[in-house]
Protein backbone atom coordinates (compact mmCIF):
# COMPACT_ATOMS: atom_id res chain seq x y z
CA UNK A 1 0.00 0.00 0.00
CA UNK A 2 1.31 3.46 -0.83
CA UNK A 3 0.88 6.71 0.93
CA UNK A 4 -2.23 8.61 -0.08
CA UNK A 5 -4.04 11.69 1.25
CA UNK A 6 -7.34 9.98 0.50
CA UNK A 7 -7.39 7.67 3.48
CA UNK A 8 -10.54 6.20 4.96
CA UNK A 9 -11.21 7.93 8.32
CA UNK A 10 -11.26 5.27 11.05
CA UNK A 11 -11.26 6.07 14.76
CA UNK A 12 -10.07 2.55 15.55
CA UNK A 13 -6.61 3.50 14.26
CA UNK A 14 -6.12 5.65 17.34
CA UNK A 15 -6.73 2.82 19.78
CA UNK A 16 -3.57 1.89 21.66
CA UNK A 17 -3.85 -1.86 21.06
CA UNK A 18 -4.15 -1.28 17.32
CA UNK A 19 -1.19 1.07 17.14
CA UNK A 20 0.95 -1.31 19.18
CA UNK A 21 0.08 -4.30 17.04
CA UNK A 22 0.71 -2.30 13.86
CA UNK A 23 4.09 -1.26 15.26
CA UNK A 24 4.86 -4.90 16.08
CA UNK A 25 4.00 -5.92 12.52
CA UNK A 26 6.14 -3.12 11.14
CA UNK A 27 9.16 -4.49 12.97
CA UNK A 28 8.68 -7.93 11.41
CA UNK A 29 9.24 -9.18 7.88
CA UNK A 30 5.65 -8.39 7.01
CA UNK A 31 4.73 -6.08 4.16
CA UNK A 32 1.49 -4.12 3.71
CA UNK A 33 0.94 -5.89 0.40
CA UNK A 34 1.10 -9.28 2.09
CA UNK A 35 -1.50 -8.16 4.61
CA UNK A 36 -3.73 -6.92 1.80
CA UNK A 37 -3.56 -10.30 0.04
CA UNK A 38 -4.27 -12.04 3.34
CA UNK A 39 -7.60 -10.19 3.49
CA UNK A 40 -8.69 -12.15 0.39
CA UNK A 41 -7.73 -15.40 2.12
CA UNK A 42 -9.96 -14.52 5.06
CA UNK A 43 -12.76 -13.54 2.65
CA UNK A 44 -12.42 -16.96 1.00
CA UNK A 45 -12.62 -18.55 4.43
CA UNK A 46 -15.76 -16.56 5.21
CA UNK A 47 -17.32 -17.53 1.87
CA UNK A 48 -16.56 -21.19 2.51
CA UNK A 49 -18.08 -20.96 5.99
CA UNK A 50 -21.25 -19.44 4.53
CA UNK A 51 -21.43 -22.22 1.93
CA UNK A 52 -21.07 -24.84 4.65
CA UNK A 53 -23.72 -23.09 6.74
CA UNK A 54 -26.16 -23.46 3.85
CA UNK A 55 -25.42 -27.17 3.60
CA UNK A 56 -25.51 -28.15 7.26
CA UNK A 57 -27.85 -28.06 10.22
CA UNK A 58 -27.92 -27.87 13.99
CA UNK A 59 -24.79 -26.97 15.88
CA UNK A 60 -22.56 -27.25 12.83
CA UNK A 61 -24.67 -24.67 10.99
CA UNK A 62 -24.40 -22.26 13.92
CA UNK A 63 -20.65 -22.82 14.16
CA UNK A 64 -20.25 -22.06 10.45
CA UNK A 65 -22.10 -18.76 10.82
CA UNK A 66 -19.91 -17.78 13.78
CA UNK A 67 -16.82 -18.71 11.77
CA UNK A 68 -18.06 -16.60 8.86
CA UNK A 69 -18.50 -13.61 11.18
CA UNK A 70 -14.95 -14.12 12.49
CA UNK A 71 -13.52 -14.30 8.96
CA UNK A 72 -15.30 -11.07 8.01
CA UNK A 73 -13.79 -9.25 10.95
CA UNK A 74 -10.32 -10.65 10.26
CA UNK A 75 -10.67 -9.42 6.69
CA UNK A 76 -11.44 -5.93 8.04
CA UNK A 77 -8.47 -6.08 10.39
CA UNK A 78 -6.24 -6.80 7.41
CA UNK A 79 -7.72 -3.74 5.69
CA UNK A 80 -6.84 -1.73 8.79
CA UNK A 81 -3.32 -3.00 9.37
CA UNK A 82 -2.10 -2.88 5.79
CA UNK A 83 -2.60 0.88 5.83
CA UNK A 84 -1.14 1.35 9.29
CA UNK A 85 1.97 -0.69 8.48
CA UNK A 86 2.39 1.19 5.20
CA UNK A 87 1.86 4.70 6.56
CA UNK A 88 2.99 4.59 10.18
CA UNK A 89 5.57 1.86 9.53
CA UNK A 90 7.01 3.58 6.47
CA UNK A 91 6.64 0.54 4.21
CA UNK A 92 4.88 2.16 1.26
CA UNK A 93 5.55 0.63 -2.13
CA UNK A 94 5.07 2.03 -5.66
CA UNK A 95 2.51 -0.67 -6.47
CA UNK A 96 0.82 -0.34 -3.10
CA UNK A 97 -2.38 1.21 -4.41
CA UNK A 98 -3.03 -1.90 -6.49
CA UNK A 99 -2.79 -4.05 -3.37
CA UNK A 100 -4.87 -1.54 -1.47
CA UNK A 101 -7.84 -1.63 -3.85
CA UNK A 102 -7.85 -4.86 -5.87
CA UNK A 103 -8.12 -7.28 -2.90
CA UNK A 104 -11.13 -5.33 -1.64
CA UNK A 105 -12.81 -5.65 -5.03
CA UNK A 106 -12.34 -9.42 -4.73
CA UNK A 107 -13.21 -9.82 -1.06
CA UNK A 108 -16.48 -7.86 -1.13
CA UNK A 109 -18.15 -9.88 -3.92
CA UNK A 110 -16.87 -13.16 -2.46
CA UNK A 111 -18.52 -12.55 0.89
CA UNK A 112 -21.72 -11.00 -0.43
CA UNK A 113 -22.36 -13.62 -3.12
CA UNK A 114 -21.61 -16.38 -0.60
CA UNK A 115 -24.60 -15.19 1.45
CA UNK A 116 -26.82 -16.68 -1.27
CA UNK A 117 -25.08 -20.02 -0.76
CA UNK A 118 -26.11 -19.88 2.89
CA UNK A 119 -29.75 -19.44 1.87
CA UNK A 120 -30.69 -22.41 -0.33
CA UNK A 121 -34.36 -22.03 0.66
CA UNK A 122 -34.53 -18.44 -0.63
CA UNK A 123 -34.31 -18.36 -4.45
CA UNK A 124 -34.39 -14.55 -4.46
CA UNK A 125 -31.20 -14.52 -2.39
CA UNK A 126 -29.18 -15.36 -5.52
CA UNK A 127 -30.02 -12.21 -7.45
CA UNK A 128 -30.03 -10.10 -4.28
CA UNK A 129 -26.49 -11.25 -3.47
CA UNK A 130 -25.20 -10.69 -7.00
CA UNK A 131 -26.84 -7.28 -7.15
CA UNK A 132 -25.33 -6.39 -3.78
CA UNK A 133 -21.88 -7.48 -4.98
CA UNK A 134 -22.22 -5.43 -8.16
CA UNK A 135 -23.30 -2.35 -6.22
CA UNK A 136 -20.44 -2.79 -3.74
CA UNK A 137 -17.92 -2.72 -6.59
CA UNK A 138 -19.76 0.19 -8.22
CA UNK A 139 -19.65 2.25 -5.03
CA UNK A 140 -15.88 1.82 -4.88
CA UNK A 141 -15.56 2.61 -8.59
CA UNK A 142 -17.42 5.90 -8.13
CA UNK A 143 -15.06 6.84 -5.27
CA UNK A 144 -11.94 5.98 -7.27
CA UNK A 145 -13.28 7.74 -10.37
CA UNK A 146 -13.92 10.87 -8.29
CA UNK A 147 -10.33 10.81 -7.04
CA UNK A 148 -9.05 10.43 -10.62
CA UNK A 149 -11.02 13.56 -11.51
CA UNK A 150 -9.37 15.51 -8.71
CA UNK A 151 -12.09 15.15 -6.06
CA UNK A 152 -11.49 14.09 -2.45
CA UNK A 153 -12.18 10.41 -1.77
CA UNK A 154 -15.80 9.92 -0.75
CA UNK A 155 -16.05 7.15 1.84
CA UNK A 156 -19.56 8.01 3.00
CA UNK A 157 -22.41 5.53 3.30
CA UNK A 158 -25.04 4.79 4.32
CA UNK A 159 -23.61 1.40 3.29
CA UNK A 160 -19.88 1.81 2.73
CA UNK A 161 -17.52 -1.13 3.20
CA UNK A 162 -17.41 -0.93 6.99
CA UNK A 163 -21.18 -0.71 7.24
CA UNK A 164 -21.66 -3.61 4.81
CA UNK A 165 -19.28 -5.84 6.71
CA UNK A 166 -20.78 -4.83 10.07
CA UNK A 167 -24.23 -5.72 8.75
CA UNK A 168 -23.02 -9.08 7.48
CA UNK A 169 -21.20 -9.85 10.73
CA UNK A 170 -24.30 -9.10 12.78
CA UNK A 171 -26.47 -11.11 10.37
CA UNK A 172 -24.15 -14.11 10.68
CA UNK A 173 -24.12 -13.97 14.47
CA UNK A 174 -27.90 -13.68 14.64
CA UNK A 175 -28.24 -16.49 12.10
CA UNK A 176 -26.15 -18.67 14.41
CA UNK A 177 -28.89 -18.44 17.06
CA UNK A 178 -31.81 -18.17 14.66
CA UNK A 179 -32.95 -21.65 15.64
CA UNK A 180 -34.21 -20.12 18.88
CA UNK A 181 -37.14 -18.52 17.04
CA UNK A 182 -37.29 -20.82 13.97
CA UNK A 183 -36.12 -18.06 11.63
CA UNK A 184 -34.58 -20.43 9.04
CA UNK A 185 -32.49 -17.85 7.14
CA UNK A 186 -34.82 -14.89 7.45
CA UNK A 187 -32.23 -12.68 9.19
CA UNK A 188 -29.62 -13.09 6.47
CA UNK A 189 -32.20 -12.67 3.70
CA UNK A 190 -33.48 -9.39 5.18
CA UNK A 191 -29.87 -8.27 5.66
CA UNK A 192 -29.23 -8.80 1.94
CA UNK A 193 -32.18 -6.55 1.12
CA UNK A 194 -30.86 -3.87 3.49
CA UNK A 195 -27.38 -4.22 1.95
CA UNK A 196 -28.70 -3.82 -1.60
CA UNK A 197 -30.88 -0.81 -0.80
CA UNK A 198 -28.21 0.84 1.34
CA UNK A 199 -25.42 0.31 -1.18
CA UNK A 200 -27.61 1.64 -4.00
CA UNK A 201 -28.22 4.77 -1.94
CA UNK A 202 -24.50 5.02 -1.31
CA UNK A 203 -23.80 4.93 -5.05
CA UNK A 204 -26.41 7.60 -5.73
CA UNK A 205 -25.12 9.80 -2.93
CA UNK A 206 -21.52 9.58 -4.10
CA UNK A 207 -22.54 10.25 -7.69
CA UNK A 208 -24.61 13.28 -6.68
CA UNK A 209 -21.75 14.67 -4.61
CA UNK A 210 -19.23 14.15 -7.40
CA UNK A 211 -21.54 15.80 -9.93
CA UNK A 212 -22.12 18.77 -7.65
CA UNK A 213 -18.41 19.28 -6.97
CA UNK A 214 -17.46 18.97 -10.62
CA UNK A 215 -20.17 21.36 -11.72
CA UNK A 216 -19.12 23.86 -9.07
CA UNK A 217 -15.50 23.59 -10.18
CA UNK A 218 -16.47 24.26 -13.80
CA UNK A 219 -18.51 27.23 -12.68
CA UNK A 220 -15.42 28.79 -11.10
User: What helical percentage do the residues reach?
Assistant: over 70%
CATH architecture: Up-down Bundle
What is the tally of helical segments? 7
Largest sheet: none
Mean pLDDT: 89
CATH class assignment: Mainly Alpha
| Gyration radius over CA | 18 Å
Estimated share of beta-strand residues: under 5%
**Uncertain stretches of 5 or more adjacent residues:** 1-5
When the domains are counted, the total is: 1
Order of helices and strands: HHHHHHH
Identify the CATH homologous superfamily.
CDP-alcohol phosphotransferase transmembrane (TM) domain
Structural class: mainly alpha
How many β-strand runs?
0
CATH topology name, in short, is Four Helix Bundle (Hemerythrin (Met), subunit A)
Please give the alpha-carbon distance between the first and last residues: 34 Å
Explain the overall architecture.
It contains seven helices and no strands. The chain is mostly helical and 220 residues long.
Amino acid sequence: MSQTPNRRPLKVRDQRIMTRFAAWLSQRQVTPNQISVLSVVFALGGALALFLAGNSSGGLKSACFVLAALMIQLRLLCNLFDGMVAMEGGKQTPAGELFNDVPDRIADPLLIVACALALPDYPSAVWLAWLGALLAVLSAYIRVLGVSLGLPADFRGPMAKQQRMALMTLACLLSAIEFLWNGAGLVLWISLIVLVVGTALTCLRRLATAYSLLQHGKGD
